[in-house]
Amino acid sequence: MSATIDIPYGKTGQPPRSRMSYGNSVDSKVAELLRLKISKRPLNAPLFELSDSCAARQTGILDGHMGVNSASIYLMKTIGKLFLGFHLNPYRFRYSVGTEAYRETGNPYITARVLRHSDIQNVIVYINEIVLAQAHDRVAAEVFKDISEVIGAGVKAKTFSGVVITKQVFKKGDLSTVRAREELGNFDPIGGCAGGIRCAQGVPVACYCCLKFRPIKEADHHGMLKATLANYFLFFEKDEKIASSLIPPILGMAQVCYLITTS
């Protein structure tokens, strides 16, 4: 058994772009017989488990059009059971068609034709997406190459100059607490500052390049590395120079992660 969802392909006006329709790929008479047969049989055995509110609206799913919101309810409940957390809508399909068309051809005119555009005026959004993705891939390769070199070099790397300590040492010591509330979403300390008073300059990211920083071995430094990498690529979209300022701390985090896992 298979099912098909027809996504409006272009700006054709009919059906409305905000709607999804069920395809009618068989002969009209056969389709009419099928609809008649189905209408006489209650849909009391759904393929996917639905809530009571969804089951109440289920009888109209095989006839006519269904709005995006209703389609999203059915699809997201099914997708949620597969642990795939993404939102399904016509815009996402259309956007994917545009980006893939330019990725495969590199030709804005072909991309415009695929999207049923009369000119290439609005194709630039799809082109920019591909160019930005390619830049991300290039920079990501460079960053992860540097991280690999830091991990490979071990303690010989100079990016991290502090000292890794245990939680017990942190509690007994006279250190100012360093937290990563925004990056990790909690108030758990990730380390301490041997300077007595935090300088508040780029805390906690910049701490990984400071010789006064004492990262706690049991803290989530891998989470810090992941969050800082995400911010790096976010900043890269706006200003490469600003993003580049995060590279030294990222390398410092990579070395801290290495020291923790090997000690």
The helix content, as a percent range, equals 40-55%
N to C succession of SSEs: EEHHEHHHHHEHEEHHH
The percentage of residues in β strands lies in 5-15%
The total count of strands amounts to: 6
Order of adjacent strands in the largest pleated sheet: 1-2-3
Major beta-sheet overview: 3 strands, antiparallel
Mean pLDDT across every amino acid position: 71
Intertermini distance = 55 Å
Class computed from helices, strands and strand pairing? mainly alpha
The unreliable regions are 15-26, 42-52
Q: Any idea what the radius of gyration is? A: 27 Å
Number of helices: 11
As for the number of domains, it is 2
Q: What shape does the CA trace take?
A: elongated
Keywords:
single chain; 263 residues; mainly alpha; 2 domains; three-stranded antiparallel β-sheet; 11 helices; 50% helix; 8% strand; elongated; DNA_brk_join_enz; DNA binding; Site-specific integrase
Question: Layout of helices and strands, plus pairs?
Answer:
Blueprint lengths: L4 E2 L12 E4 L5 H12 L12 H5 L8 E3 H14 L8 H16 L2 H7 L9 H30 L13 H6 L3 E4 L1 H4 L4 E5 L19 E3 L5 H16 L3 H5 L2 H16 L1
Antiparallel strand pairs: 1-2, 2-3, 4-5, 5-6
Helix pairs in contact: 4-5, 4-6, 6-11, 9-11
Give a description of the structure:
With 263 residues, this protein is mainly alpha-helical. It folds into 2 domains: 81 residues, no CATH class; 105 residues, no CATH class. It is built from 11 helices and 6 strands. A 3-stranded antiparallel sheet has the order 1-2-3. A 3-stranded antiparallel sheet has the order 4-5-6, with no helix packed on it. The protein is elongated, with a radius of gyration of 27 Å. The termini are far apart. The relative contact order is 0.08. About 9% of the residues have low confidence.
